[in-house]
Amino acid sequence: MNNEIDFSKQYEYDVEMYHDDYGILGPGTLYFGGGKFAYVSLEVFGGFVRPDGETILKARAKSGEKFTLINCTYQDYIIHSDLIIGGDIGSGTNDIIIRYADISDWFMFDQDVKGIIGESLTWTNPVPQMNVSIENEDESFSLRSDISSKISKRGEDRTIHQHINFIFSRINGEFSFSDLKNKPHELSSLLSILIAYPISISNMWVTSSSGYQVPAYFPAFKRVERDFDENVFWRNALVSRPTLDARWQTIFERYYNSIYRKVHWIRLAGMQRHEGFWEYKVLGYVSLLDGYASELTKANKIKPTNTKKEKIDSIFEALSTFKNPLSKEQLNEIRPIMESAFPKRRNLNFTEKYNYLIETTDANIVKIINLSEDDFKLIKHARDTIAHGSAVDLIEIPYEKIHSITEKLALLLTFRALNDFGMTPDEFMENLARTHNRLRFNKKLNMVHLQRITDPASFLTVSQPVFDKISNLKSAILNACLTKDSKGELEYSEKHVAAYKAWLEQRPAKSGPTSFEDIFDVAKERVTHIGTAFLEFDGNLKELYDVYIISDA
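The chain above was modelled as a monomer; its predicted structure follows.
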């Protein structure tokens, strides 16, 4: 049999079903792959014998391939199976090997090959491999990454294939059959949150009792088609791999010990795949936010304000001011009547839980995500309307606004997850500033504040005359030139702007890179180039592109 089962392909085999103890059971056709459950369509008149109570069956194809079908059920001449192994396997396995689509590009983005073809080639920037172990009341396993390489030849072409495989190994005992499905899903959820892009299983193998690796398959999420060019997947990932290289152990420990993992973070990863009606996306993200905020306040023992006691105390304080005040005995008789008249202690409502979530989120992150109180009220109203089966008024609440707020919620929840895994707010902002991930390209985010935090040197404080002059010059928006004196004061430079324009007009159409000495006739150390800068005076900002600052010395 082929030593790979591609999760995205569909397979069909004519097989003979058998059991190690019962012998031949009957013929049928085995179908699996493409995200669908594995099943065997039995030949009605094939004399199939059904062994009662058996959930593990074997299949042998006419071409010689063998399969083990796990957790089998029977119905109307159909055998359904939760998991299929491309070979014989006993009760469990010591190793689970997983390959995911796309993740190798992210993992090995800075690795390259140098040398002379035909003589010697060497890998540069070798990838630091993941090697972690988890041991707690519920888990006991190790996980490592491993580069799988091979060379294929076709005519005169030789192609190097490299993939990152992730290998789960049991520290004590064997993995159960349920682990064979759970462990790959748990890891894909973590990776999907780290890079803010849905990751799918490409291939899977397990070790048989003889120690050989055999392919396995179970119905899993289909691969999400890329909407960007090949070899740039790493640029679309929210978090870069080098940010995580030295901390995989901490990330996995915090992930597997998180009280939010099994429900909220798994669902957050799943929401990345949403492609259906926009109302379900709103319902999903707002409900996920509601559930997470509920768990957060519960874990931190946040209680609502006891307004009942405050109200009763205020009434008794007023009674004490009467001209003829009640006696102590009378007051003691009145208090239980009042306590029974007021409602019992209430639970926190969604708004209070959400407010606590925002209060405990880094202030810079909150400012960047820019989720206002009105935004929350609007999206909560939209969710409640959808949940009750009513139609959202798209005139009152335009879809564009709903979409923008929903994307803000996705970014907020992603930050909270990454922070739960150990990523600091500063690290999150640094990665958000340089990624091409879709969560970044929401026009309602406060990207000016993000740039102020991650690139403070791009904010240029100037005097009012300089600010007014440049603001009134449309031509200064692009390629503005400023001079900086020994005191750090900036001035607009007509001279250097003219020099830059003259260089643009005279340079050849296909000229190579030109040094600053050629353009401004100064040492290159004196010139600072800023791709996007903000001119600033008294709280007012002017955005400029490709700014050149020439210092006096």
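The chain has a mean pLDDT of 89.
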